[in-house]
Design a protein that fits this description.
- The chain contains 10 helices and no strands.
- α1 runs parallel beside α3 and α9 packs antiparallel against α10.
- This is Ankyrin repeat domain-containing protein.
- Keywords: ANK repeat, Repeat.
């Protein structure tokens, strides 16, 4: 059974990951707190760090054993988050640490789909180069090309067609 102190440290770890306070992250992890703890939405410290563009914190968490393919309660991974937000350096870090390029969230979306829908074409290019599957369909039966067309992202469509 977790103590009150451990529950509080879980939240402190997640907050430290959000703001990129690596000294606090290191201190909490040194106390044996689970690096893959989840908050009320299922966000892990790694997901939070990545979503908030905290490269060094993400690297630290991965080195401490964070699950690169951990997902929140909606099925979203850190790679999906950075693909939506547009952080290619962190995407590269995650991919180099074994991120599954083709994981699908609750509605069947992939990191490639998020990148294409939100105009993150540098990430579209990166994900395709690293082997993301452009033929996966979401829960509605739509492909990444369909989603890019819906958003008027013709650059992504061109990238998808050239791969």
């Amino acid at each position: 059974m977790g103590t009150i102190e451990n529950v509080n440290l879980d939240y402190v770890l997640i907050h430290a990951a959000r703001v990129g306070d690596n000294a606090v992250v290191e201190e909490i992890l040194s106390r044996g707190i689970n690096v893959n703890v989840q908050d009320e939405k299922g966000y892990t410290p790694l997901i939070i760090a990545c979503y908030n563009n905290r490269y060094e914190t993400a690297k630290l968490l991965l080195e401490a054993g964070a699950d690169v393919n951990g997902f929140d309660y909606g099925g979203n991974t850190a790679l999906m988050g950075v693909s939506f937000k547009g952080y290619p350096e962190i995407a590269e870090l995650l991919i180099n640490n074994g991120a599954d390029l083709n994981m699908q969230h609750g509605n069947g979306g992939t990191a490639l789909m998020f990148a294409a829908m939100f105009g993150r074409n540098d990430l579209v290019k990166l994900l395709l180069t690293r082997g993301a599957d452009k033929n996966i369909l979401d829960a509605r039966g739509l492909s990444v090309t369909d989603l890019a067309l819906q958003q008027g992202n013709h650059e992504a469509v061109a990238l998808l067609e050239s791969e």
